[in-house]
Design a protein that fits this description.
Layout: H1 3-35, H2 38-64, H3 78-107, H4 117-144, H5 147-178, H6 188-215, H7 223-232, E1 239-248, E2 251-260, H8 266-283, E3 288-295, H9 304-307
């Protein structure tokens, strides 16, 4: 598959995710306002986050295909990390609003939620759409080895669970209407909203941590050990050291030093560096690899004093 076809398929997957998020955000917001369900409004806010995440992914996919230039020698992948960090901060503010209103409802005796059949229909549609788009994104991510699409798929997969929590909250409200003795369940909607907020906070914290780690050029756990082990297993490579790995968006950059026989011709040494690049790309596909070959230290020659025979 050529680069243009891959780029087109990734863009289509990302755009489909954006339109699905727009549809669900609008549907949940209207239903939440009409029914007074804080749980559904919380889900609308969550879907708004999904829309932001989908837009970030769409931009990230486009940025990933943009070549490096004079001002950005390592490409434009960091845009994805910066956008994800901004998204996390907006999300935490949204969760603070949800938590504030949920606590107010739990402490107030005046709670009215219309747990109509339409509320259940909307949440069922949400689960179906989230399931469909998460599977689509997972397939595209696996096919094109796109970590941006994979993160998007994981994000939308968590929406299935949060929507299920809201349905449980709405069921509690209906049971309270049918059975007066279960009146305490009328606040299940607010509890569901708190649960949704907790889920979103956890997901956003994980996203924020990964974004900060990428911005600080943190080395992915275990990758240096894998690279050293595989490179040192190559025939005629005596040592692999000074390995550095950094990530920029979906791309990896690897610098490493290898020790070779100092008597190797230049052409043979170059072929060895290409073999090392190939091995590293088997571990980190499409990584930008820089290999610095060094000659194996020559053992020191014995000193004249050591060669001089002793007295007979």
């Amino acid at each position: 598959m050529n680069a243009e076809t891959s780029k087109h398929e990734k863009n289509v997957a990302a755009l489909n995710s954006v339109w699905a998020a727009v549809f669900l955000t609008g549907l949940k917001a209207v239903t939440g306002l009409l029914t007074g369900s804080l749980g559904i409004l919380a889900e609308a806010a969550h879907s708004g986050l999904d829309l932001a995440a989908a837009l970030v992914t769409c931009l990230a996919v486009r940025a990933a295909s943009k070549p490096a230039d004079r001002e950005h020698a390592y490409g434009h992948g960091k845009v994805e990390n910066l956008s994800a960090l901004a998204e996390m901060l907006l999300l935490l503010a949204t969760c603070a609003w949800i938590i504030h209103n949920s606590v107010q409802r739990l402490g107030s005796g005046r709670v009215h939620v219309d747990a109509s059949v339409w509320a259940f229909v909307v949440m069922a549609i949400s689960i179906a759409v989230d399931f469909s788009r998460s599977r689509m994104l997972y397939r595209a991510a696996a096919k094109h080895r796109s970590q941006a699409l994979e993160a998007d798929a994981l994000h939308f997969h968590t929406d299935i669970w949060s929507s299920s929590v809201v349905i449980v909250g709405l069921l509690g409200v209906r049971l309270a209407d049918w059975f007066p003795g279960l009146g305490f369940l009328v606040k299940a909607d607010a509890v569901a909203a708190l649960t949704v907020a907790a889920i979103v906070v956890i997901v956003s914290a994980q996203l924020g941590f990964r974004s900060v780690q990428a911005l600080l050029d943190a080395t992915p756990p275990g990758e240096i050990e894998k690279i050293k082990s595989r490179v040192e297993a190559i025939e005629n490579v005596f040592d692999c050291h000074a390995v550095r790995v950094r990530r920029s968006g979906p791309h990896y950059f690897v610098d490493l030093h290898i020790t070779l026989d100092g008597e190797l011709p230049l052409q043979a040494a170059h072929a060895m560096t290409e073999r090392v690049e190939q091995v590293v790309n088997e571990i980190l596909p499409d990584a930008d690899v820089t290999v610095h070959p060094e000659p194996k230290p020559v053992p020191a020659a014995p000193s004249p004093a050591q060669d001089k025979p002793g007295p007979g």
